[in-house]
Amino acid sequence: MTSPVITARTDTAVLDVVQLMLDNAVSALPVVDDKDVLLGLVSEGDLIRRSELGARDYSSWWLAAIGGKVRLAEEFVKTHAMRADDIMTRDLVTVNEDTLVWQIAETLEKHKIKRVPVVRDGKVVGIVSRANLLQALAAQRDQATRAPSQDDRDLRDKLLNSLSQEPWSDLPHLNVVVQEGVVHYWGRVHSEEARQALQVAARAVPGVVDVVDHTHKTVTLF
Question: Which of 7, 15, 70, 197 sees the fewest Cβ atoms within 10 Å?
Answer without folding.
Answer: 70
